[in-house]
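User: Please check token order:
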Amino acid sequence: MALVVAGCGGADKPPLERAQGDIERFTVRGQAAVLVKPEPPTEKVVVYTHGAGETIDYTFRDPRENEIFATLLDAGYALAATDAHGDNWGNLASERDQVALVAELRERGLRDVYVLALSMGGLNGLQLLDRVPVRAWAGIFPACDLASVWDLGLYRGQIRAAYGLGASASPRGVLRGRSPVAFDPPDGLPMRFWASTGDRIIPSRENTDACAALARRRGARVEVTATRGDHGDPSNYDAAGILRLFESAGE
């Protein structure tokens, strides 16, 4: 099963509409959501928690992500995502959006939930571990320490907007509650992180290294893959590795 990406034909359609698969659009908690189902029908679904600047309409725009999605669909996994209040940085509204999405998927018979978290979506992806049963968890340079992102200064406007902080309001309380974000993985949960020490957007030491260590201490089965380059480097987008991780949940 292939996914057709931007620049490869069908330019008059949004990228999502060019994905090959049974595509269903719906709304959860007032947020646009999408489900892409393979053939034959499955009970396995990968919940993709998106990065900053992403919406479901452009979930399949990036060729690097596209290869991952196509690999998972070919292997019999459905894909699902919600807009989750956009540039949410793990706020309460987005956490509730993700939990509601999983509940909707389970009602549709998709009961085996896997998480794929990208960048900002690491916050939502880890929050899910306390709220719903998850079979395996994959993070591509995932954020889990909001203070480390704030300190770099690049996304302070988005973080203020996500948490309703005025220009003069102190972010201290918000940052304290998500630095690191609270999560408690079930014993033995397969988890894998991909991150580079050269990442200048989501610092790997405060995010991947710290939260992978925390997950290990809490009983998860954790692997960390060192990648290269800056944020978004293609070495982070390991379609085969993500599939192996998810398949290991059945072993």
Strands lie at 22-28, 31-37, 44-49, 78-82, 112-118, 136-140, 190-195, 221-226. The first helix runs from residue 63 to 74. The first strand starts at residue 22 and ends at 28.
